[in-house]
Structure formats: C-alpha cells, structure tokens
Amino acid sequence: MSPPDSVQKHLIDIETILxxxxxxxxxxxxxxxxxxxxxxxxxxxxxxxxxEAMNRLLRAAPEFETRISHARRIIGLRNILSHGYDSVxxxxxxxxxVDHLPLLKTEIGLLIRALRR
Length: 117
Fold this sequence. Notes:
This protein is mainly alpha-helical. It has one domain. 78% of the residues lie in helices and 0% in strands. The protein has helices spanning 5-25, 30-35, 37-60, 71-83, 90-116. The longest helix is centred in the last third of the chain and has 27 residues, at 90-116. The protein is globular, with a radius of gyration of 14 Å.
C-alpha cells in the first residue's frame, strides 16, 4: 500500500524550505545574521513552516518520526516561534540551520527517494 499523496507533499514542502534556508544563509556568518532583521524574519517564518510541515507529515505518517532526527524538536521550535514571538533567540535559529539542517536535508531526501521507488 502506498502512502497518501499528502506524505509526498509534506516531504517536498520540507525539502523546499530546507533549500530556502540554505540559500538565504549561504555565505553569511552568525554576526551577519544577528544584525540583519530581514534575514531573521525569513528564518523565523521558514522555521515555522518547517515545523508545521513536519507536524502534518507525522500526522499523515507517524512511522516517519523514528526516521527523522529531532522531528518533535522541530515541531516544538515552531510552537515557540509562533507563540513566543517576543522571546526568540536568534542564535538558536542560526545554530539549527548550520548544525542540524544538513542531516535533516539528507534524511528527507532519503524518504523522498524511497517513496518514489
């Protein structure tokens, strides 16, 4: 039995957001990020979308939680960003983008390729 179309859609949404965060962050430093309010806003929104797409993915395919590192933490970050907008630690967003998103990108790519077989 193949997964619902929504699973593929959420994976593609996540892949797209990961690429966008990578594109906006490429060539930038933490200092650049901490002084660029527009870039901070882009990252905030992209991390919110990433968390929501992850939440929807896990509702559609709960078995993926064990195949995606820190899936619940990604959703938790989304909740912090949308409900605690006045206490965002931008260093955490930067660190997540640099240290954690490359692995997530690999994992999502593997899931997408597995579904296409």
